[in-house]
Amino acid sequence: MWSICKKEFSQFFSSLTGYIAIVVFLLVNGLVLFVFRNNILESGFATLDQFFAFAPWVMLFLTAAVTMRSFADEYRGGTFEVLRTRPLTAGQLVGGKFWGSFAVAAIALLPTLVYFFSINSLAATSGIDAGAAAGSYLGLLFLTAVFTAIGICVSSFTNNAVVAFIISIVVMVLFYFGFEALSQLPLFNNGAGYYIEMLGIRYHYTSISRGVLDTRDLVYFISLVLFFLLITRQNLQHR
């Protein structure tokens, strides 16, 4: 499994595309935080709330770009049959692809720690709430894991990387924001809207971002990752 993980990781950085994707992720978040309208320098408050609210939408595109070739290129290039001749189970193959892609996306988050230290140094009085920031970063990692699992799952159903990219984005948006939008319909004003909103990723991401670890949030994220990886494994076994 780890050989597949290392292959996936090194393959992403073997071309300029991988570096461009991460640079764009950091650039867009930096512009929103420090340059665009209502940026943190204009507000005058030492907080990363704006970054953590916007980052999931940029991470959505990043993970889709990272995972779109996971299995699609293997099918198109005919290397999937070669992988299946190796002493690897379908679960190990899926696990290797997942951890390799997740490591790439997680690395993109590391440079954003510069935002935390920069804003802390610029603060005149008290800096950023470290507990809430740590919770938000943990939430972003779980969010990245779910998006990665979704992207790999979608990629396992097609041999076209562009199609995998587009469908991955649609599925990620539905799971991140779709349930919250659905819960706001007048049809669910009787209280059912709250439980429908709980099915969405954004509800649990916001909960972790408060800096409080709730077992229900952790179980939700882990279950969702396992769910999509299980679907991927079943699809590979059918192939």
What would you note in describing this structure?
Keywords: Cell membrane, Membrane, Transmembrane, Transmembrane helix. One of its GO terms (cellular component) is plasma membrane. It comes from Cnuella takakiae. By secondary structure, the chain is mostly helical. It has helices at residues 2-12, 16-34, 40-43, 49-67, 72-77, 80-84, 90-109, 113-122, 130-155, 161-183, 192-197, 201-209, 215-238. It starts with a helix and ends with a helix.
Question: In terms of topology, how is this protein built?
Answer:
Layout: H1 2-12, H2 16-34, H3 40-43, H4 49-67, H5 72-77, H6 80-84, H7 90-109, H8 113-122, H9 130-155, H10 161-183, H11 192-197, H12 201-209, H13 215-238
Key structural traits:
239 residues; ABC-type transporter activity; mainly alpha; transmembrane; Protein involved in gliding motility GldF; transmembrane helix; 13 helices
Short summary of the structure?
The protein is an all-alpha fold. 76% of the residues lie in helices and 0% in strands.
Tell me, rounded to a whole number, the average pLDDT. Answer: 84
Relative helix content: over 70%
* Relative strand content: under 5%
Number of domains: 1
Total count of strands: 0
Shape: globular
What assembly state would you assign to the polypeptide chains in this entry?
single chain
Please give the count of helices: 13
Rg value = 19 Å
Describe the sheet with the most strands: none
**Structure class:** mainly alpha
* Poorly predicted runs: none
Terminal Cα span:
19 Å
List the secondary-structure elements in sequence, H or E: HHHHHHHHHHHHH
